[in-house]
Design goal:
five-stranded mixed sheet; four-stranded mixed sheet; 8 helices; globular; EC 5.3.3.2; NUDIX_hydrolase_dom
């Protein structure tokens, strides 16, 4: 697990040298990739590189199908919710994305592990997943967010007071991914600010760091891969506004609104 941080927040000389070297090597090589989620060559339905628990979750996890107004209309497996049909369509389902900030206001950025089913090696916000159908009912969004933050980032549940989460808005988007597995979601955007203990799961996350707001725009072009489509849309359309106003997020929240942002290339 690499803790890759901007030079301004490196804690030792070795990490500083590694970060500077990576910047020089990748500034040109990945100049075009970081802005978009370009589909890669289709892979077999489930690649041999996919971690076993994630492969099993494709058929074990039951996701929530919704209509375009985010009304719950049924269920489907995680596999069926992400499989791209021959006509390019994907089942619309409910999801959430958590943006995590420490009390200083730095944002947690992670790189999805190479063995992820969807968008492996892409950079994104702290946690992106789905509420599930559990005990014959749809899981609450914040309950699901706390569950996944505990599983992916190792944050203890007792450090995640539900009252600290701000439900900002919803985003409806479609992305073909690699042409085999993609996304079509109504994504609930949650902000969470606290100094929490983090111990990322290496099956989920390969790199992570906290990025200061004044370093973010300069840091993004140095990344060794593209951004996930949902993170890229939020970055372009709302992130600056919300990041500038962490102290009054509830005033800016539009939980009843469903936005359709474009993921410009």
């Amino acid at each position: 697990m690499k803790d890759v941080r901007p030079p301004v927040i490196q804690e030792d000389t070795k990490m500083l040298v590694r970060s500077l070297s990576r910047r020089l090597w990748n500034t040109v090589r990945y100049e075009k990739r970081f802005l978009a989620s370009e589909p890669t060559k289709p892979q077999p339905e489930v690649s041999n590189s996919v971690e076993q628990n994630q492969a099993e979750a494709l058929d074990k996890d039951i996701c929530l199908l919704v209509d375009e107004k985010d009304n719950f209309i049924g269920t489907a497996t995680k596999r069926d919710c992400h499989k791209v049909a021959e006509d390019g369509s994907i089942l619309l389902h409910r999801a959430f994305s958590v943006f995590l900030f420490n009390k200083r206001g730095d944002m947690f950025l992670q790189r999805r592990a190479s063995q992820k089913v969807t968008y492996p090696d892409y950079y994104t916000n702290a946690c992106c997943s789905h509420p599930l159908y559990i005990d014959d009912k749809p899981e609450d969004i914040i309950t699901a967010a706390r569950r996944r933050l505990n599983f992916e980032l190792g944050i203890p549940l007792d450090q995640m007071d539900p009252e600290l989460f701000t439900f900002l808005t919803r985003v409806h988007y479609h992305d073909p991914g690699d042409g085999v597995f993609g996304e079509h979601e109504i994504d609930h955007i949650l902000f969470f600010q606290s100094d929490v203990k983090v111990k990322p799961n290496s099956d989920e996350i390969s790199e992570y760091c906290y990025v200061p707001k004044n370093e973010f725009n300069a840091y993004i072009p140095t990344l060794e891969g593209p951004l996930t489509p949902w993170f890229n849309m939020i970055r372009r359309h709302r992130l600056k506004l919300w990041w500038d106003n962490l102290h009054r997020l509830k005033e800016l929240a539009e939980p009843n609104k469903i936005n359709k942002f474009l993921n410009e290339k």
